[in-house]
Predict the 3D structure of the following.
Amino acid sequence: MGRKKRSAEKFWDDAEANGLKPAAESGVNGDIVRKELEQGTSDNYDRMLDFWDEYKIRNKGATLTAETGNAIEIGKAMIDAKRFIEGVGRATRNKGEGTSMYYILQLWADLGAGLARRGTPVSSIVSESIYHYIRGALRKLLGLSEDRRPRHFVTLAYLIILTKHLWQKDWHQYIHPRILVYDHAASLNFTYTSSRVGEHFESGARRGSGRGLLYKDIVFIVFKNEEGMAELAVRTTRDAKGMTHTPHKRPKHALYENMEPLYANPIMPVLAIAIADEAFQDYQTVEDIFEIPAPPDGIPFELRIKKELDQVPFFQVMSAEGPTGKIQTAGSHSKRTVDAGHRAGMGANITFRAKRREALVSADANGYSTAERMKFGGHTDPNVFFHSYMDDTSTVDGQSNIFGGKRRTVHIDAFRGLSLQYDPQRLHSLPAKVEDDLSRRLDFIQISKELAALGDRLQELGTSGGNEGQEVRNRRRQLYLARCKLMSDELSQWQAIQPRKIALEGAKPEPSVGPRSNFFNRVRHLDPPRDRLASSLFQHVSLRSPQGRIALHDMITLCRENPQVAYRPSLRPVNGRCPVPSCARTMIKFVFPYLLASTSFEKLKLIMSFPPL
């Protein structure tokens, strides 16, 4: 016999018994409840509301609200709306020419959304009219740009170029070598899973949330593959956009071990990071994991992650000493990716989205269904792919379509990556003569003289400069940026006029001015693990081969140690004291030489934690 259902009277008696208070005591108000915003979105709304509030202070009686059918109120609201958005456009234009019309449209949308949440929505007729005003009259008045950023695609050829540069040529010195492994792991993950950067790193829209790829979102298994052998696989769960309150719908992606060459193996960097973090509950070394046999019954064996690491970010902010436990931001990773692309010879800014686009376009070209592609991309609308990701170049082979030949796509793939503007001989520094001429320019000399004067003033003020010292530092920072911009603008002009001729077969390419890519080859021997990885990662061997194991161990070493100190024993403290015999004072940490050149002794005492004289 089924359980007897409660009566309505009993139902509400139970509710009151469980804590439901009378209306007068409940504290429930009549406020409208709206969707909770991410921090970045809320900040954007608040910023536009601040602009509007200031406009109302300067223009008494300003309003964007009008009663429907009241021509006088509508006319007044239209005047205020047009003046306000023109002011926004002119203030934004001060930052540089070519302000995007779409950016102004977004600011107007942010204001409308903010006012609606405040309870004073913009009248619909005003909102729609200003939309057309921005696209028409205001665009012509302020010269707003209608151009969209070109869609970039990191095709396989460019992925290989970027990876080779990262491991074989990059002269950039990171604060810790684990960042190399992080960026390599993220690059492969974006390429193979079409993830967004804010799903692995903390998105700007989710500032302070700590959300991204956590250890609880990662599952490692050993499974029996098609040959009956043990193979590793990892599955990551993406903290997908728009799925904050539907975690059960978040996309999951599985990646497998058997992949050659080693640089293309997505398991390798992920496993190296996990072992360096001692993340596994039952296994500590690579050898322990590789000894796990193939499950005889075909049921996969899970490598358990330690419970205390569940909320620990997989991609952490790094210091010279190691991981800090804080999640990396999407902005910091994106900036590193863009900078690395430029150093590799790309003229365009390479972001995660270029890899995501290529992954989705390739999935579409490889015949996956719309539903599979949507799940792969974390989309809920099938039109998003067509409007935001699909290449503008038609994939129809017009020639074979008419003459009945075999369809070709290789030329289409070539055009897809063309917008990256790759030039292997791209200049990364100014010719000596040009740099000398720049240093003699009046604007450059004025900045340099003021910097020298500010430096002298800081020395006079000492470490306790107070407010004046802070003002001097802020001004000096502005001048350094201004001087860097002068050099950057000059370099951009030289890059634009630089000849671009491909070397003939068998001929050596002409060396560019001061090729920085040679720097890595000169110093790589100082860092043995990275020296070996520059060669071993590009071998066509399995991860479990002897060469693969050595490469994996080297990657783990990069994650655990900082060779800037590990391979310079003469710089280490001796018995906790300075290694220079004439000094031999207590020393806690080493300060890099480039800091010594520009740091006062008083400041060095603080940095190096010397006891007072």
Observations:
- The longest strand covers residues 230-237.
- The radius of gyration is 30 Å.
